[in-house]
Amino acid sequence: MPKRVAAFFYNRLTGLRDFLSLKLTGAYPRPFYVHVEINNTCNLDCVMCPRDRLTRRLTLMDSGLFRSVIRQLAGMGVPSVSLFLFGDPLCHPRLAELVAFARENGIAPEINTNAMVLTEERGRELLDAGLKTIIFSVDGVTPEVFAEVRRGGDLERVRANILRFLDLADRHRPRPTTVIQYAVSKLNEHEVDGFRAFWEGRVDRLNFTRVTEYAGIEGLKTYEYKTQERRPCPDTWSKMVILADGTVTTCCLDLNGELGMGDAA
């Protein structure tokens, strides 16, 4: 049996075991979703991103470390990984190789990108590598609003890149899941309907999120928390984050690894 097929069935069986464990004990025996930050470099300066407070060294994850991490996660039965966190994965020159390695080990790889450098060649490489899910972050409908939110970005270029990739994906088997994401803020909330009208039906899912206000980043939210409605984040019990230098942390918002609880290196 090919390695990829064997790994697929192994992960499905461990997934069933995890589900039964959750029902019986209320806890997962392993994370079912892991952020593996393959790079913390980016080509944009988005207004809601805290990257200007990043004190970690800008780097790509060492290829040996990445392979070790994927093998460890596969051995644990982790079904999927997100190959991004505080950077755009398309800024990694060997992204397709990393996607293929995860897939070969039975793990479904996902990326989230601004699509600025999603050329036709790179799109084909990702499809052939076995990318499971791709999320496009597009936070505007008009060039003016888009430029205000995604500073350094070009809306027409992004749209063209995404539409070309969607056409390639529709003709590729297996076809990845495609998602368009819109981070709603006070800068772009008036364009939500226009965003929906343009993208609905072109992708598998539209995903609307609320901007997160990191320490020192204020004034973008479209709502206010009420103290009595605050709840602990459930991701602590089901997800894990591995930063580009190998630091293991509990939270996907831990910009500088201050909550580090281990080292995957």
Architecture overview:
This protein has 265 residues and is of the alpha/beta class. It has one domain: Aldolase class I (TIM Barrel). It is 33% helix and 15% strand. It is built from seven helices and nine strands, in the order αβαβαβαβααβαββββ. Helix 3 runs parallel beside helix 4 (120-129) and helix 4 crosses helix 6 (155-170).
Strand content: 15-25%
**How are the strands ordered across the major sheet?**
6-5-4-3-2-1-7-8-9
Determine the number of helices (DSSP H or I, runs of at least 4 residues): 7
- Overall number of domains: 1
The parts where pLDDT drops under 50 for at least 5 residues are none
The name CATH uses for the topology is TIM Barrel
GO biological process, one term: molybdopterin cofactor biosynthetic process
Pfam families: Radical_SAM
InterPro entries: Aldolase_TIM (IPR013785), Elp3/MiaA/NifB-like_rSAM (IPR006638), MoaA_NifB_PqqE_Fe-S-bd_CS (IPR000385), Radical_SAM_PqqE_MftC-like (IPR050377), rSAM (IPR007197), rSAM_sf (IPR058240)
Protein name: Radical SAM core domain-containing protein
